[in-house]
Amino acid sequence: GAFRMGEHLLLNSYVQTAAQRLEEDLRKLSHPSPSSNMTNIDNNPLQAVMHPAHNNSQQKEVAQLKNEFVSMVSHELRTPLTAIKGYAGLLQAYSVSDRLSRSESKSGTGEITPARQQQYLDIIMEQANHLEVLIGDLLDVSRIQAGRLALRFCNVNIAQLCQQVVQVAQQRIDQKQAEKYRIQCNLSPNLPLVWADPDRVRQVLTNLLENAIKYSPDGGLIEVLAYPHHTLVSKQAFSVSQTTESASQEPLIIHITVRDSGIGIPHEQQSLLFQP
């Protein structure tokens, strides 16, 4: 009985952050100390020779990329923060209406309806969630660079996941541009369960859908296709316990494609897709 419902919600919002910090602290405890790293370099002449191989031009290029990245991130983080502060300020300003006289409230100054209040709170929560996603992306970048991006695999109903992502994207776009875009799933029947990280699949699919919307200024149909395909990848990448295929068959891969009728990417720029 020490906490009320609102305090429980507040504490729950910090659970994931606390878990991430605990994970980072445990990783630091298990990470070799700097002294042992120096010993390894000293005992490995090849590594010691290769270490200073970066010339000044490469270092300048890296520094420039970092500066551009920091500038971009600062702009991206400032956008939802501005909305959060703005709408919270509106609620704060309207909160004085309780102290206003009845005549002032009737005249329209300082009055806020429950529907308008709910709208402001919804916007604040939406932007706070957006900010949380951006910060999560930053953490992903640091984890990828450090080689610490962990994937949590499980059996995933890929058809259901695609439908959920499409439904969320359609609802979001309808709030801003109703009937301009139509997002639909074209899925092969009876798709099997897949062995994947559902959060990462959802993240990639959401990003592709957002790009399809952003770069289809004229609107129209956006499709998510999922279909099975046998491929000759190494069978060692698949857990035998997680598949019902016989040993003589190639592993079954589910291909997911996002297709739109937007402006596309010029051919000469496609080679730059996976560069910083």
How would you describe the overall organization of this protein?
- With 276 residues, the chain is mostly helical.
- It has nine helices and five strands.
- It has a three-stranded mixed beta sheet with strand order 2-4-5.
- The longest helix is centred in the N-terminal third of the chain and has 39 residues.
- It is globular, with a radius of gyration of 25 Å.
- About 14% of the residues have low confidence.
Provide a brief overview of the structure.
With 276 residues, the protein is mostly helical. Helix content is 56%, strand content 12%.
Strand order of the largest sheet: 2-4-5
The succession of helices and strands, N to C, reads HHHHHHHEHEEHEE
* End-to-end distance: 51 Å
Gyration radius, to the nearest Å? 25 Å
What percentage of the residues does DSSP assign to strands (E)?
Answer: 5-15%
The count of β-strands is: 5
Tally of helical runs: 9
Main sheet overview: 3 strands, mixed
Helical amount among residues, as a percent range? 55-70%
Overall 3D shape: globular
Low-confidence segments, ≥5 residues, pLDDT <50?
Answer: 35-51, 100-105, 234-248
Average pLDDT figure: 77
Structural class: mainly alpha
